[in-house]
């Protein structure tokens, strides 16, 4: 059996973690022949919650779960890890301005970036889920010079899946029949659902849905506002679907696709083929090589609509970067 994989989960007593941890422990990420060690990190005041989650994981007797470490010291929790799911983040409180939220989270991700720099394996892959995930990931990599910026990702897989599901519903088809649908930009209300390069049953999606008014209007809005819709319906933010997407996102990063299909992820924008500012975490279509590395998928033609929306998302991310760097 291959050496056990050490997986760090921050915000480990939160609602996404409560779904994610049990799916990781059941072998959903690597399959049944790979042992894992879970490193659970949360704030000191959440120590009781960490103990409770550990007990529940133990009682589940997952055969591939070799050990569970819980901790409230980030550097110790990150010791020797191969992968990280960074879920922990400060939520937006009542009356809190966006710049205050960015400021609070930047403190967290400066400290955690430094911790990863010292303690994680040099080839560790880091997926940031906690919002604002793009800028949190950027701060994290800024503070981890021992790791390559290409090892950091922000999760836009949930947005991609939401879009695929909405298109499939419209077409009365299956989401897996849609390919090449990409989220560009920021994981925010300005995320860009690129339907223009999507394919349905091996043909351009636009042949099946020629109504661009619907695609640019109600469809995009649905993807952009799905999170708020879930909060309104459930009284809480999406959690199980976020955990599901986090596993899909990490699997897409870890394993190569024989057909080299691209997927969306927030990645460091250096040398991107789309002319986007080269020092952001921006969501692009990427293709993974199965060894922890990835390359951009380049779409040759961008429609004026797509270029305009990509520029709006870029501007927002530049503003976020300027705000946290001025703190
Ligand atoms: N990228 C996406 O698509 C996506 C989707 C859904 C949720 N999210 C984000 O994921 C994050 C987690 O969501 P949740 O529903 O589990 O939230 P939650 O409020 O249930 O849990 C958050 C956890 O983070 C912890 N935390 C707070 N500050 C921390 C810090 N400094 N260090 C470590 N942990 C800290 C809390 O103690 C708590 O355990 C949120 O920021 C949410 O907005 C992102």
Helix/strand order = EHEHEHEHEHEHEEEEEHHHEEEH
* β-strand amount: 15-25%
Ligand kinds: nicotinamide-adenine-dinucleotide
Overall average residue pLDDT: 96
Question: Strand order, biggest sheet?
Answer: 3-2-1-4-5-6
| Main sheet record | 6 strands, parallel
The CA-CA distance between the termini, in Å, is: 47 Å
Describe the structure.
The chain has 327 residues and is an alpha/beta fold. Helices cover 43% and strands 18% of the residues. The protein is built from ten helices and 14 strands. A six-stranded parallel beta sheet has the order 3-2-1-4-5-6, with helices on both faces. The chain has a three-stranded antiparallel beta sheet with strand order 7-10-11. Strands 12-13-14 form a three-stranded antiparallel beta sheet. Strand 10 and strand 11 form a beta hairpin. The N and C termini lie far apart (47 Å). The structure holds nicotinamide-adenine-dinucleotide. Nicotinamide-adenine-dinucleotide binds next to helix 1.
Brief overview, please?
With 327 residues, the protein is an alpha/beta fold. It has helices spanning 15-25, 47-59, 74-77, 98-119, 133-142, 157-171, 205-208, 212-234, 240-254, 304-325, and strands spanning 5-10, 36-41, 65-71, 83-86, 125-128, 152-154, 178-179, 182-184, 192-194, 199-200, 203-204, 263-268, 281-288, 294-296.
Give the SSE layout:
Elements: E1 5-10, H1 15-25, E2 36-41, H2 47-59, E3 65-71, H3 74-77, E4 83-86, H4 98-119, E5 125-128, H5 133-142, E6 152-154, H6 157-171, E7 178-179, E8 182-184, E9 192-194, E10 199-200, E11 203-204, H7 205-208, H8 212-234, H9 240-254, E12 263-268, E13 281-288, E14 294-296, H10 304-325
The structure holds nicotinamide-adenine-dinucleotide.
Nicotinamide-adenine-dinucleotide binds at residues 10-11, 13-17, 42-43, 46, 87-91, 108, 129-131, 133, 155, 158, 187, 237-239, 242.
């Amino acid at each position: 059996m291959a050496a056990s994989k050490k997986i760090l989960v921050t915000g480990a007593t939160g609602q996404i973690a409560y779904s994610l941890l049990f799916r990781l422990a059941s072998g959903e990420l690597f399959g049944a022949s790979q042992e894992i060690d879970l490193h659970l990190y949360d704030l000191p005041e959440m120590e009781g919650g960490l103990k409770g989650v550990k007990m529940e994981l133990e009682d589940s007797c997952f055969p591939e779960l070799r050990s569970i470490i819980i901790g409230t010291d980030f550097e110790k929790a990150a010791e020797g890890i191969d992968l990280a799911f960074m879920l922990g983040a400060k939520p937006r409180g009542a009356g809190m301005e966006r710049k205050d939220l960015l400021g609070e989270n930047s403190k967290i991700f400066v400290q955690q970036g430094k911790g990863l720099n010292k303690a994680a394996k040099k080839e560790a892959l880091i997926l940031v889920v906690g919002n604002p995930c793009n800028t949190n990931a950027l701060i994290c990599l800024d503070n981890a010079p021992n790791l390559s910026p290409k090892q950091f990702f922000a999760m836009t897989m949930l947005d991609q899946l939401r879009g695929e599901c909405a298109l499939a519903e419209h077409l009365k088809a299956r989401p897996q029949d849609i390919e090449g649908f990409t989220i560009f930009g920021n994981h925010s209300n300005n995320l860009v659902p690129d339907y223009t390069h999507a394919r349905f049953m091996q043909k351009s999606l636009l042949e099946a849905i020629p109504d661009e008014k619907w695609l640019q209007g109600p469809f995009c809005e649905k993807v952009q506002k799905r999170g708020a819709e879930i909060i309104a319906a459930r009284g809480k933010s999406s959690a199980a679907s976020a955990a599901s997407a986090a596993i899909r996102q990490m699997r897409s990063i870890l394993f190569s696709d024989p057909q080299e299909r691209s997927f969306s992820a927030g990645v460091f924008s250096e040398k991107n083929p789309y002319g986007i500012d080269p020092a952001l975490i921006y969501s692009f279509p990427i293709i993974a090589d199965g060894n922890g590395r990835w390359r951009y998928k380049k779409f040759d033609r961008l429609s004026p609509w797509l270029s305009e929306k990509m520029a709006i998302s870029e501007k927002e991310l530049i503003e976020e970067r300027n705000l946290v760097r001025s703190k």
